[in-house]
Amino acid sequence: MLGKGIVLGLAETARNFFGSFFYRARLTTVQFPEERLPQIEAARNFPFLVFDGADWQQGMRCVACQICEKECPPKCILIEKSKDKKPDATGKPQFYPAVFNIDVSVCMSCQICVEVCPFDAIKMDVDFELSTYDRFGGLLWDKQRLSKSNEHYHQIHPTEAAAVDAALAAEREKLAAKARAANAPPANAAPSTSAPATAEGQA
User: Fold this and answer.
1) Can you tell me whether residue 73 is helix, strand or coil?
2) What is the sign of the dihedral through the CA atoms of 181, 51, 53 and 153?
3) In what side-by-side order are the strands of the sheet with 147-149?
4) How far is CA 203 from CA 14, 194, 195, 196, in A?
5) Following CA atoms 79, 116, 55, 59 in sequence, which dihedral angle do they give, to the nearest 10 degrees?
6) Do the beta carbons of residue 47 and residue 100 sit within 8 Å?
7) CA of 40: how far to CAs of 34, 123, 145, in Å?
8) How high is the mean pLDDT of the chain?
9) Farthest-apart Cα atoms in the chain, separation
10) Contact, 49 vs 147, CB < 8 A?
11) Which residues contact 30 (CB under 8 A, 6 or more apart)?
12) CB atoms within 10 A of CB 29
């Protein structure tokens, strides 16, 4: 029938309209910002840098390997590696980003930086209320603006964050076991005991 699609569309609109007076599920419009839909775990917007502990500088996971900078399709990430090193979460000295900037006006939220990061240092946030009056400085985020705690990561992506923490804990335990094995004495080494002096030897 000619126009069948239009008729079906109007019927669905009418069903939702009249049904909204009796069923809240039919209210498809959310009165934002007074009402907000809950964020789903798989949502993503712009990247952020994860840090462990209370100090964002000391606990930053990023080691400035620059893989995300090289793989970023729109080239919105700028990283400058530090000249010195600092201990990471495992106690191993690592480089850190002296500069880590992301131009969110260019970022396309593709998540490639997250997928290529071998240290689980960069993740995708779900915050979307990011309007600013400054179209230049307000959209160029430095490492302090990008840094968010591991607790924040657990709040927005609990399942993914739990898996990441488990993998990092296993890696730390592996390194600790390797260090203990390196410092332990050989199993086949005979205990060093000095023979008591005999009477003839003392004479």
Assistant:
1) coil
2) negative
3) 122-124, 47-51, 147-149
4) 118, 19, 16, 14
5) -110
6) no
7) 19, 15, 23
8) 87
9) 125
10) yes
11) 36, 37
12) 7
Query: Letter for the amino acid at 96?
Result: Y
For residue range 5-49, list pLDDT tens digits in order: 999 999 999 988 888 888 877 777 788 889 888 888 989 999 999
Query: Against a cut of 0.85, is the pTM above it?
Result: no
Q: Which amino acid is at 39?
A: Q
Instruction: Render pLDDT for 47-90 as a digit per residue (tens, 0 to 9).
Output: 999 999 999 988 999 999 999 999 999 999 999 999 999 887 66
State residue 176's pLDDT score: 83
Domains of the chain, first to last = 48-179 (3.30.70.3270)
- With beta carbons less than 8 A apart as the criterion, state whether 79 and 99 touch: yes
| Distance from C-alpha of 151 to C-alpha of 51, rounded to nearest angstrom | 9
Dig out the tokens for 121 from the structure: 């240092």
